[in-house]
Automatic annotation (TrEMBL):
PANTHER family, sorted: LD30995P (PTHR12994:SF17), SECERNIN (PTHR12994)
GO biological process, one term: proteolysis
Record field: catalytic activity: an L-aminoacyl-L-amino acid + H2O = 2 an L-alpha-amino acid
Enzyme class of the recorded protein, top EC level: hydrolase
Family annotation (InterPro entries): C69_dipept_A-like, Peptidase_C69
Record protein name field: Dipeptidase
Entry similarity comment: Belongs to the peptidase C69 family.
Record EC number: 3.4.-.-
Organism: Levilactobacillus paucivorans
Pfam families cross-referenced by the UniProt entry: Peptidase_C69
Keyword Protease included in the entry's annotation: yes
Length: 455
């Protein structure tokens, strides 16, 4: 609605616990520096200068940083990664590798060294070709002009596309890019040997076109029940006029022009949704569905949620305060999104002090603890939770406007302090919700007896 580019993601773990923090790394000069992966052991030489950038790494980094999402000082955003899959036929010719560049290293190796979204796709693509990868992934980049989306294929191959103007794309753990125009370098990038690789190994089932999804992707039952329903729900939100798609459809388009312009609040709703208003809502809130329907499809918001980021690069303000990383931690159906300007030199204490043990004095564990309280009594608490989230949403919007209006002087110091004030107020409100729900919950005990009750 305001001309921004937006890249947004939910980070999920394989289990419900994976403590996350929000940090900012200063710009550094680092002659002859290298990066060595804690996961694969690969060592990669680094450029001499690293730009300042934000990230959302794991609190426990014994198995890697997994910085996942951030924005650098040149207002370039990166989300890495969305876990996907390459089909078995392709992997027979280009298997995944054990000593390459995986998700845990991608933001660290790319975001501090790029000036544009397209450069991000180019740098990551070159690294994948040289070192390989042990996973299939999709990665998104944005700057104030463009959004680029890259998908890996096998151990060393990839392609990237520039999203068309005024469109959105939804990527639910599946290889999704469709027609790639190999002659259009302004809008598509591919691995240097991709065409030869496909031709040599007879991988293209649709000669005369180059459909990346058909060549490299999967179309299994797991896609139909784990992945495509999330695209279906998002496209029903942003294009409600489309009524001929089913949740298990395997041929939904990757990009669409929305029926109306999209705001940050629309993105927040989608990322924190659970098939609201349909028979597939596991909470069964507004639509009647059988117990089987409510467990049929993998929801977007779920107890495995860890950290959600919305990377917004705005075009209606000066560049020194144009970039905002909206962050929610915990179970996103309950947690509020907090807007953090990224031209900063520090992050709020309760966002960076995440521990591996439960401690409600950091935001990650505060929101995770709230989800334990809320889920068993969702319908008793939902009115309070929704009022809390909507209040935080309005407050966040007002804080962005107030900060824009007052920015000046040492902009980095000003935005760092503004972030602290915004986060402090939302943390205060979250603790107040925690207090309210704990007290409410104590009155829901099945063993509670009222004074004077007949024994």
């Amino acid at each position: 609605m305001d001309g921004s580019t937006i890249v947004a993601r939910n980070e999920d773990g394989y289990g419900p616990v994976n403590p996350i923090k929000f940090v900012v790394h200063p710009a550094t000069d680092q002659t002859q520096a290298t990066f060595t992966s804690a996961v694969t052991g690969v060592t990669v030489p680094l450029p001499d200068h690293a730009y300042r950038y934000t990230g959302t790494p794991q609190a426990d980094q014994s198995d890697g940083q997994y910085e996942e999402a951030g924005i650098n000082e040149l207002n370039v955003g990166m989300s890495a990664t969305e876990t996907t899959a390459t089909n078995a036929r392709v992997l027979g010719y280009d298997p995944l590798v054990n000593d390459g560049i995986n998700e845990e290293a991608m933001v660290t190796l790319v975001l501090p060294y790029i000036k544009t979204a397209k450069e991000g796709a180019q740098r990551l693509g070159a690294l994948l070709e040289k070192y390989g990868t042990g996973e299939s992934n999709s990665i998104a980049f944005n700057d104030h002009n463009e959004i680029w989306y890259l998908e890996t294929a096998g151990g060393h191959h990839w392609a990237a596309m520039r999203l068309p103007e005024d469109t959105y794309a939804i990527a639910p753990n599946q290889t999704l890019m469709q027609e790639v125009d190999l002659t259009d370098n302004d809008n598509f990038l591919v691995a240097t040997d991709l065409v030869d690789f496909v031709e040599k190994n007879h991988l293209n089932p649709t000669p005369g076109s180059f459909n990346f999804r058909e060549i490299f992707g999967t179309h299994g039952e797991d896609d139909a029940y784990y992945n495509t329903p999330r695209t279906w729900y998002g496209q029903t939100l942003f294009n409600p006029e489309i009524t001929d798609q089913e949740p298990t459809d395997q041929d939904m388009p990757f990009t669409r022009k929305p029926a109306k312009k999209i705001a940050i609040e629309d993105v927040q709703f989608f990322l924190s949704s659970h098939y609201n208003g349909t028979p597939y809502d596991p909470f069964g809130t507004y639509a009647s569905g059988s117990a089987n329907d409510q467990r049929k499809y993998r929801p977007i918001a779920m107890d495995r949620n860890q950290c959600s980021s919305i990377l917004q690069i705005r075009n209606d303000v000066d560049a020194d305060h144009a970039a905002i990383q909206w962050i929610a931690m915990g179970f996103f159906a309950y947690a509020p999104y907090v807007p953090f300007f990224t031209n900063i030199n520090d992050t709020p204490v309760d966002y960076q002090n995440t521990t591996t043990s439960v401690d409600v004095n950091n935001v990650y564990w505060l929101n995770k603890t709230l989800s334990v309280i809320i889920e068993p009594h969702f319908h008793e608490y939902v009115e309070s939770v929704n009022a809390f989230r909507e209040g935080c949403q309005s407050y966040a919007r007002s804080r962005v406007a107030a900060t824009d209006a007052a920015v000046g002087g040492d902009v980095t110091a000003f935005l760092t302090q503004s972030n602290a004030e915004t986060a402090g107020e939302i943390s205060k409100r979250t603790h107040a919700l925690f207090d309210e729900l704990v007290k409410h919950g104590l009155n829901l005990s099945k063993t509670a007896w009222e004074k004077g009750q007949n024994l």
